[in-house]
Amino acid sequence: MPNSTALFPVVAAALIDDAGRVLVQQRPPGKQMAGLWEFPGGKVEPGESPEAALVRELNEELALTVAAADLYPVTFASQALSGKHLVLLLYACRRWIGTPALLDAVALQWAMPAELRLLPMPPADAPFVATLERL
After folding, report:
1. Sheet of 84-93, strands arranged across
2. What domains lie within the chain, and their CATH numbers?
3. In this entry, which stretches build a coiled coil (predicted)?
4. Beta sheet of 22-26, edge-to-edge order
5. Sign of the dihedral through C-alpha 6, 70, 106, 35
6. Would you say 130 and 114 are in contact if contact means Cβ atoms under 8 Å apart?
């Protein structure tokens, strides 16, 4: 029997600086999972490729310019939500133009992958830390 659950595609970036630190942002009050730390990114719009969505989201959330060619897929998460199914694609990126700005979050933090384990993260983001520790 086919599953009628709609897929909810979301993309996220592990922006990695020259020191090997990863950028995470804290979700603002009033949003679902407020206060948790997450990798920047967002929803893939209809007709948009995951890479195009991530380039757009990084510009909207952080005022960064990223080339799709500088994104490389790392891993993904799959999680049932109420009425839909989240598929979260994580990309790594080591090159961008600009300095991350607080446009859609209450705080930004650069942290070594192991330090991310100390931060409260959404259930779909937290498993990515082990993968990032191996990069």
Report:
1. 41-43, 6-15, 84-93, 71-81
2. 11-133 (3.90.79.10)
3. none
4. 37-38, 22-26, 107-111
5. positive
6. no
Count of positions (residues) in the chain: 135
Q: For residue 125, give every residue at least 6 positions away whose Cβ sits within 8 Å of its Cβ, in sequence order, or none.
A: 12, 36, 37, 38, 39, 77, 88
* Residue 74, both tokens: 């790392």
Q: Tell the residue number behind the tokens 């592990």, with chain if given.
A: 14
The kind and range of the H/E element at 125 are none
C-alpha span between 33 and 94 (Å, rounded): 27
Strand residue runs (E) in 70-125:
71-81, 84-93, 107-111
In whole angstroms, give the CA distance from residue 25 to residue 64: 14
Integer Cα distance of 15 and 21 in angstroms: 8
Query: What's the token pair of residue 15?
Result: 């922006």
